[in-house]
Amino acid sequence: MADGATTRDLRTRNRARVLRRVVVAGETTRADLAAQCHLSAATVTNVVGDLLREGLIEERGSLPSDGGRPIGQIGVHPSGAYFLGADVGEHGVAVELFDLSFERLDREFREGRTRESTPSEIGEALQDAVSAIRARHPERESRLVGLGLGLPGIVEDISGSHGGREVVLYAQSLGWPPVHIDELLRADALEVLADNGAKTLATAEMWFGAARGVDHAIVALLGRGIGLGVVSNGELMRGLASSAGEWGHTKVSVGGPRCRCGAQGCLEAYVGADAILGRWRDGGGEPPGSGWRALTALVAAADAGASAAVRVLDETVEVLALALGNLVNLTNPERVIVGGWVGLCLMQSRRAQLEAQVRAAALERPGGQFALELCRFEGDSVALGAALLPLQRLIDGPMAKVTA
Amino acid sequence: MADGATTRDLRTRNRARVLRRVVVAGETTRADLAAQCHLSAATVTNVVGDLLREGLIEERGSLPSDGGRPIGQIGVHPSGAYFLGADVGEHGVAVELFDLSFERLDREFREGRTRESTPSEIGEALQDAVSAIRARHPERESRLVGLGLGLPGIVEDISGSHGGREVVLYAQSLGWPPVHIDELLRADALEVLADNGAKTLATAEMWFGAARGVDHAIVALLGRGIGLGVVSNGELMRGLASSAGEWGHTKVSVGGPRCRCGAQGCLEAYVGADAILGRWRDGGGEPPGSGWRALTALVAAADAGASAAVRVLDETVEVLALALGNLVNLTNPERVIVGGWVGLCLMQSRRAQLEAQVRAAALERPGGQFALELCRFEGDSVALGAALLPLQRLIDGPMAKVTA
DNA sequence: GACTGTTATTCTAAGTCGTGAAAGAAGGAG
DNA sequence: CTCCTTCTTTCACGACTTAGAATAACAGTC
Fold it and tell me: Could you list the residue range(s) of the whole structural domain that residue A134 is in?
């Protein structure tokens, strides 16, 4: 709640700022907190006192000051809270356990069937993996804050006024019917939060990656599918039903190649991995397999001068740059962050070309104001980002009861 | 400032909520304010008391209640504050004076030279018009809050940490060099705020038009140029340097017709008025002039079955729907609001077709969640929206000193 | 080892704020 | 005139932040 009109909400907000800052920085001083959070030293003392009592932060020795009382350092208390994050994909399910310093403590992977799995199979695998991890860490159970899910598709939060939360996953591209997340998983005594996988990855970048401390950014994830997170005013854009950021099916041209969503000319049908490799194959190329190896083979062929490969890469960069340029015009970001394995590959091989073309596609003003960067996390931090969902709950929520 | 950690800021925020609500509603009751602003009745009493003392709202008789004490009505005190708004265009300058009920009290128009004007000419006209209005209303001078400018181009706020505000207008399409707004106008003792004209129009829609009370919306303005305002979380998206929302030069296709911005395939080169009429002319049509009359002639021709005209309109709708659909996917709005004279014309003649195609272009989910609406204000409320800039200042700012 | 200078942190007192409960105000019905 | 009902305000309370005073914790220095 950004609202809240009482003095207690004031404290809640200030606690949130301080805690957020400590988690992001890992280790700080009271003076830094006062400056960063626009609080007086006295308030920082009070809030820090609360957080110490809550067990979320800890005192960490001290630094020498210029001749005076040493500066007390404070940092995250790693075992102060634990978070589960799950990367739910079509291929399988990964569940990870993090402490408050966001060190990964444990991980459990469940492979799906080779072919596409059904919601109930995935749900079972998820349930199973979560239970396994929880069973291995009984001593942490009491400080487990929640479970975040990064899901492959549109995650709508339609919790109306009518009580119970209603979160539904629409994974059209997997051919799933709409699924309530409660159907997917029943976690006893554990808060479950869900978000689209690309959004959780963007969240991870916002907290610990290339979008850290940036108020306006776009985080593009290029893999088989195309995902996007738009950060505006320091927050991820969600829209009415939190499906904002659906970028993969942006129509890049009237007509154009058919996309797996059924429409024509989608961005994904140009720069999605399958589309890229498909074009190469059509041009006579012979990709080994379909993943990272195939893509690097394409790059290698292009570097070796194979004209078909060069053309495919050039086209890919051109379309991507066009779409990114449009996005830059639309959102005027400070950073443009490209990730996903296809993104990584393109950034490694064609970064300058991409950057130049994005700037050219955008108008002069917004086009000159962003920095292009690579995602700091690769694909497997969907789970990390998902684990940040309960963290945000912990931070923005009211103070926990402290056993005095 | 959305931040602010002191108890006084709390009051500032609550005052802002209440005042905003009163201005939007025009007339309300205390109970309504308590409900809408999530405040207790006691707090509403206090805040309303402050606002009454400030002279911004007034008591307005009472409504009968079901057998009990009558409900006191309160409303905006029209003469509590005045605002100037200016619509600065290539054709000329219109300055308007509003009171707190946003009744227009006066208007001053200065035609530019028939050909494009220079910044200094426009600045002079602006200065002149503002002075004329101020001179006509000396008694309102003391309660004049500020002047808002709606400008034709990107308005960048680069007020860094280094003191003085730096607001620069980049009106590339007018062929202007970058202009400091201070160069454009020197207003003694009057706060001057500026924003892009399309954004001020969107602001007007947010306050009093089709986007009222909506947290997620897109407001598209179609005229000779194409403008856009994206409302996310109840606020207009601005991006790093407030140039977010540049939509007219979105590349709709690789290659494509050349746009006045120099690039190819811009949306504006398809659905801008000149482009539409140009295509009709190329197809053998004979538009009378170039404005509204020409466009209605095109629609009439299409209605009469002229195949060239039908084709032109169909193409226009198709491209526009594509672009809007992409935007819907990206922002997941609750409303899609179309305005501008070209927009009006298209909505009158091809609304159903446009709506169907936008929904088809968007994914199923976000595509089914918005309502398509017509702008409630036509072109001349750029000035109204501009006048809302100082209003926002008044609302979000601290309480005014009251001569006790 | 006492003392001083210096810086970081905490304590104290003062001033604000919002809220629930209780009191007050303003009409209508009997 | 009295009671009843319904809004509105007052009051007492607890909670908050903060400026400034006080204290803590060190390094030199005499």
Answer: 81-202+382-396
Distant-in-sequence contacts of B127-135, Cβ < 8 A, 24+ apart: B127/B185, B127/B186, B127/B187, B129/B86, B129/B93, B129/B94, B129/B95, B130/B84, B130/B86, B130/B95, B130/B185, B130/B187, B132/B108, B133/B84, B133/B95, B133/B97, B133/B106, B133/B108, B134/B84
Share of chain A above pLDDT 70, in %: 96
What's the number of domains chain B is made of? Answer: 3
Same domain, yes or no, for A20 and A96? no
**Each residue's pLDDT tens digit, A182-235:** 888 887 789 999 999 999 999 999 999 999 999 999 999 999 889 999 999 999
The domain spanning residue B21 has which CATH number? 1.10.10.10
Closest CA to A83 of A391, A392, A397: A391
Distance B404 CA to C13 C1' (A): 28
Q: Do A112 and A15 share a domain, yes or no?
A: no
List pLDDT tens digits, range B18-77.
Answer: 999 999 999 999 999 999 999 999 999 999 999 999 999 999 988 888 878 899 999 999
Classify each residue of B153-185 as buried b or exposed e, where b means 16 or more C-beta atoms within 10 Å of its C-beta: bbbbbeeeeeeeeebbbbbbbbebeebebeebb
- The domain boundary residue, chosen from B76, B94, B119: B76
- Strand D neighbours (CB under 7 Å) are A 7-8, 10-11, 14, 39-43, 46-47, 62, 64, 67-70; B 5-7, 29-31, 41-42, 44-46, 48-49, 62, 65-72
Is residue A165 domain-resident? Answer: yes
Spacing of B58 CA from D12 C1' in Å: 30
Q: Which residue is nearest to nucleotide C12 (CA to C1')?
A: A42
Which residue in the set B237, B245, B369 is minimally distant from A241, CB to CB?
A: B369
In a domain, residue B403? The reply is: no
> Does residue B401 lie in a domain region?
no
Average pLDDT of chain A to the nearest whole number: 91
pLDDT bucket at B1, cuts 50 / 70 / 90: very low
B350 and B219 within one domain: yes
Cβ-based contacts of A246 with chain B (< 8 Å): 329-330, 332, 363, 365-366
Residues A191 and A223 reside in one and the same domain: no
Please indicate, yes or no, if residue B113 is contained in any of the structural domains: yes
Asked if B36 CB < 7 A from strand C, the reply is: no
Chain A interface includes B250 (CB < 8 A): yes
B76, B92, B113: which is the final residue of a domain?
B76
